[in-house]
Amino acid sequence: MKLSLEQLQEYNQSLFSSHQEEFGFLANQLSKEGNDVNGLVEKIKAFQIAVPSWALGAGGTRFGRFGIGGEPRDLEEKLEDIGLLKALTQKTDSVSLHIPWDIPSDYASIQSKAESLGISFDAMNSNTFQDYGQPHSYKLGSLGNAKKSVRDQAVAHNVEVIEIGKKLGSKGLTVWLADGSNFPGQASLRNSLHWTQESLSEIYQAMPEDWKLLVEYKPYEPNFYHTIIPDWGTSSLLCKSVGDRAKVLVDLGHHLPNTNIEQIVATLVYQDMLAGFHFNDSKYGDDDLTTGSIKPYQLFLIFCELISGSEDGAQAWESISWMIDASHNTKDPLEDLMQALEMISISFTKALLVNREKLTACQMEGDVVGAQECLQEAFQRDVRPLVKEARIQLGGAADPIGHYRKMDVRKKLIQERGAESRSTGL
Ligand SMILES: [Mn+2]
To answer: Which of 177, 336, 391, 411 is the most exposed place for a label (fewest CB within 10 A)?
Structure first.
């Protein structure tokens, strides 16, 4: 379904005077403090985040999955849902596809659909963590499997994903490996790392020269004794051994509790080794909770590192890929994605407001309290009117979730696609 622009504008109109009042107040305050408000709005407008194709249906846990109805039945409908998100939020303009869940049956029609919605194809995702009818099982691993035949098959799958991505105009391949072992002695720790390195190197060689390889890490799950790429250091080591265009992907849920993720980001940016992000949030592990719902301060601190890294010339902002990676069980996924996009925008905006000159001076003078105040001043500010202004200027909804609910979008999707429709993926 498509949103009617007239209805969107009518709804925005009803919220306009209160928005103008709030935005005017904030803009005035920020200008007085020496901020370039138009410049800030332009930066917010330019910041776009890819949505993964698997986040559009109901997710699930290993205990169960509860359908929400009206889920996209094929790739075309997934693109339509992202089109809806784009129209409402103006915060996403690309999709990250998962193979084999999203192999296009007709490339020309998928491309023209994407083009008509203003959506491009972000990094491709391969899948060697499930069996889907291929000759050799991935039960005991894929790129790092002890058997060469399995490794070859997993490499060939990744090469196929690159080929599919080339046809769609994608420029990257994300590899997340479930490889590891459940019991001591099950796998050779050193050999499995070596085989993974060899396999990644083969995949790297198959990539076009303007592509990048994004390598994820994760400390545990689905394997619980050892994971071949458990942390950013191992990922970085592998990336450096395969080539310049291989970099580390940080998935916020792929850390042990209390890990200092902003420090990891700073370290990677220092080395120009950060490929991009998978945004989500977690309390205990890879919980796939909505970005910013648990640790908004952490998200803000991460953006502080990214912005200072790019302003200091450590790693270019444009070289980093932004994507949401979440699919939970209990929310309407489109509403969940709107919440995530909003929280990412808010955290980014707050980080833009940090007075870096003052912060650096505090750091140099050893003014611990002053440094903390610098961060808190930006973090505690309500920047929602700025984010809203950017969205309205781009033609989006003043209140995306409010408009989505007022328009009964889910009900209409259920009428169109059925209450039992099921999206491909987990
Ligand atoms: Mn991920």
So the answer is: 411
Q: Which residues surround ligand 1, an ion (CB under 5 A)?
A: 251, 278, 325
Q: According to the model, what pLDDT value does residue 4 have?
A: 83
259 CA → ligand 1 middle, Å:
17
Q: How far is the centre of ligand 1, averaged over its atoms, from the C-alpha of 309 (Å)? A: 23
How far, in Å, from the CA of 54 to the mean position of ligand 1?
11
Ligand 1 centroid to residue 58 C-alpha, Å: 17
Question: Using CA atoms, how far apart are residues 168 and 113, in angstroms rounded to an integer?
Answer: 12
Percent over 70 (pLDDT), the chain? 99
Per-residue pLDDT tens over the stretch 377-413: 999 999 999 999 999 999 999 999 999 999 999 999 9
Say how many Å lie between the CA of residue 402 and the centre of ligand 1: 29
Q: Where are the beta strands (DSSP E) in 33-101?
A: 51-52, 94-96
Domain ranges across the chain: 48-347
Quote the pLDDT of residue 426.
58
- Ligand 1 center to 356 CA (angstroms): 31
Distance 121 CA to ligand 1 centre (A): 17
Residue 103 has pLDDT above 80, yes or no: yes
The rounded Å distance from CA 340 to ligand 1 centre is: 15
Q: Hey, is 346 helix, strand or coil?
A: helix
Confidence grade of residue 64 (pLDDT, cut at 50, 70, 90): confident
Question: Taking the domain 48-347, which CATH number applies?
Answer: 3.20.20.150
